Amino acid sequence: MDIKLKKLKISEHLSEETTAFTADIFINGYKAGYAKNDGNGGCTFYHPYDEKGKQLMQDAEIYCKTLPDKTVEMGKGRSFTYNVTLETIIDDFVDEAANEKATKAFITKRNKAMLKSIVYTTKDKLNDAYSLTNWKNFDIATMLAIPLGKETIRKKLIELNANGYIILNTNIPTEIMPN
Fold this sequence. Notes:
Oligomer: single chain
Structural class: alpha+beta
Number of domains: 2
Strand content: 25-35%
Largest sheet: 4 strands, antiparallel
Helix content: 25-40%
């Protein structure tokens, strides 16, 4: 059974305890209904658009009961297992889309920071946090254009590397990057 969400609109400003969203539900290529969550911690609601959509949603609910339970790792050796339902499939699609959007925003922000700063992190924070070193009134390109600036960057890179940091910049020439 093919279940998809289209026209997904996530409203981050309305999301408090759960992700607020609206979306159309397509089942086997048919626009069967819509789903929504108001973001206040309650359930995700879904409703058919017509009789065919109602039947497809009922079929999807039956199909979901045949799927194996899903386990989510909570960290620190804890996990949570739940039965798969049409609601949980919809929520998983929304969570995946929200995470993808957040990841893209994080990467865009990090890449923009590289223009002005040395961007670095630790191995355990590689995909979710970074730190910056910059120089007032000088971006990386300006620093690299002058010998003293290039040497200043090289020394800082050596220091960061010696302290176990991973340099994320892609705009610093490899010849001044520490090995």
